[in-house]
Please model this.
Amino acid sequence: MHRDLVLYWIRMASLLVTPIAPHFAEHIWTGILRESSSIQLALWPTPATPIDSTIIESGAYMRGTVKTIRDAEISFLRAMAKARGKKGTQEQKPFDPTKPKAIRIYVATQFPKWQDQCVDSVKQSYVKDEDRVDDPKVKQLLIESGLIKDKRAMPFIQLFKVN
Model:
């Protein structure tokens, strides 16, 4: 680890813990960081760059994806154990749960064409004054574009509107 990075982390952590544990933060501030003034006089940390909401949303999406994968693995293992218990014999496992696993996740840089059309339909149907989407207009636009018959369109639009 780089010394400056560790000291920066200690400085930020002590500033953030000051409202909760002021005596401890003061000890870190004056004892370890060797600051001459009290931590009570220090300014609250400000981010060096603006917060990028897309990174936060991407992280939340990946956490949800990882949870879905882990839940699927757990339910598969339970189903295997249940099937093994019913048959009473040990049969060949489709995979060995003790071995390391890997997964490859692909990230698209743009929506497929049908999803772009759905997003455009929602954008065109948005009523800004009322802060809502005009659903009959969305339906009409989907009919005009031929997407009304696509079974993926309406669930995608509903999810898009929720988000």
Remarks:
- Residues 3-41 form one domain.
- The radius of gyration is 27 Å.
- Helices lie at 3-17, 22-32, 53-87, 113-125, 135-145, 153-162.
